[in-house]
Amino acid sequence: MIEQALETIEVELAILYRRITNRKHGNLDRSAYLLLHQIHANGAAGVKALADEFRLDVSTVSRQTAALEKKGYVIRIPDPADGRAYSLQISELGKQELAASKKSRTERIGRLIRDWSEEEKEIFGRLLARLNRTFD
Fold it and tell me: What is the pTM of this model?
């Protein structure tokens, strides 16, 4: 019985991942959305700190943040103590794109689970947050 539950969870997570990652919401793909969300929620951050947060290679995050910078979604803030180092701060345009993407994503999820009770939505949210915290 426990094995069946684990198999169900594994397959359903794989399906969910596929369905979520195959869609772009507004001008932001998943990686751009998460990076902008992290910077907006926690303040300016360096590429290494962002890579550590998402458990990615620095080179991967560097490419992703370079794309965000090129689009004007983030700006570099030089480190006064080290001329080579910098942090990334979300720009006004980045804030606007993040808000639009978040609205689109939230509305989509709202439509998908509109028939769920408020209790079911709260329980599901708590369980997803708990699952995500277990990866830390």
Answer: 0.83
